Amino acid sequence: MKLDFSGVEEFVPVPEGRYLAEVITSAEGLSKAANQRKWTLKLRVSQALGGDEEPIGKEIKWDVSLQPKALWKVQQTLTALGESVSIEDTEFEFDAANYVGRECTLIVGKTQDPVYGSRTAVQRLEAADAFEMAVA
To answer: How many domains does the chain have?
Structure first.
């Protein structure tokens, strides 16, 4: 097999900061490593909220385990996407497809990965209006 690398652009991660993003895909699936249920969102950056870097159009994947021990992260993600979910709720009808088109704020920062070392990654999602409330 011959590979042609001409025209390949270097991967540039989204820099640290806060960004408005839109969910462009949202689906349930299974993790490769443990074959456990997960929720995968693909988000497209639409606006930098402060700072000089403007990675408009960049896409970021956000995986959320649907296992009982990770429901806190599911709850945070749902809240960031506009759902009213409480830890007291005993039942919530979840359909991953319902979140396409919704907006949220991405918080991107440095993390320390045991394999890859220091890198930037999404640390959490917040409601799209959280930045506007913090600035007001």
So the answer is: 1
